[in-house]
User: Which sequence fits this backbone?
């Protein structure tokens, strides 16, 4: 079954910068394609997380991003047999901003 066939319509996408890639990884049933889907999802989620650190962020999206990263780690560990060391989540707002003078 192709993962994209089961994706919700665009009206259900709340975070378009990364949600489609993430849901594609979650729904992928072909183990051979799963690695690439997880890689693409992680890249999209991390890119958006980095963008949120550059300006005011949506707290709901920030929580969704941390949940997505956690779920992707579970996929990697359970389905792809990765050895994922626990990563301590740092709230985005806790990251200090650099002052450029």
Assistant:
């Amino acid at each position: 079954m192709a993962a994209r066939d089961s994706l919700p319509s665009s009206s259900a996408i709340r975070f378009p910068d990364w949600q489609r890639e993430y849901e594609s990884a979650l729904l992928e049933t072909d183990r051979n394609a799963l690695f690439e889907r997880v890689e693409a999802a992680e890249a999209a989620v991390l890119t958006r997380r980095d963008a949120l650190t550059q300006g005011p962020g949506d707290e709901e999206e920030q929580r969704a991003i941390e949940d997505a990263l956690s779920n992707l780690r579970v996929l990697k560990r359970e389905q792809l047999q990765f050895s994922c060391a626990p990563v301590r989540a740092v709230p985005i707002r806790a990251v200090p901003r650099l002052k450029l003078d």
User: Anything to note?
Assistant: The first helix runs from residue 19 to 27. The CA atoms of residues 65 and 74 lie 14 Å apart. The chain has one domain: 14-94. Residues 1-5 have pLDDT under 50 and may be disordered.
